[in-house]
Amino acid sequence: MSVTFDAPGISVPAxxxxxxxxxxxxxxxxxxxxxxxxxxxxxxxxxxxxxxxLPLAPASPAFFEYTDSTNGALSLVAQNLDxxxxxxxxxxxxxxxITLYANGxxxxxxxxxxGQASSxxxxxxxxxxxxxxxxGKTAPVSFSGLTPQTxxxxxxxxxxxxxxxxxxxxxxISVGGVTGKASQLAIR
Length: 188
Description:
By secondary structure, this protein is an all-beta fold. It is built from no helices and 18 strands.
């Protein structure tokens, strides 16, 4: 299986991280930064599939989500500083720094090569700082960039505002004026 992105003057393969009978997980190549669209070609062995045009944007923020087994709610993937998963039974504390995991935050400085893990010593920070709101309160961002030693995974370290309401709260993210779908997070 191979996936290739073509844009004016660019033809680059997309690294595949997972595939099944129903879908393929790929990284959109960093080389496409600045393009507004690309033609996507999928091949299985030497058999070409249909091509399609994919619109591209500088940023298209979205949180990674999971189903919280303690309450069945779809929640964003977030961790406390001790790396414990934030759930309804292990809620984030007001005034505490937490890490949120996202995709589509756009260009970073010190961009790793497409398909290769980001550095653990030189942080790849986003070119545009995201705006995060938890329970309608703006959460100060202390870091936004690629998670070290991962491929294309962004993390945002934020402080949960002291006046954030408790319980399951909506969380939004905006980058460069583009707001992603709201998710939710348990706050204590």
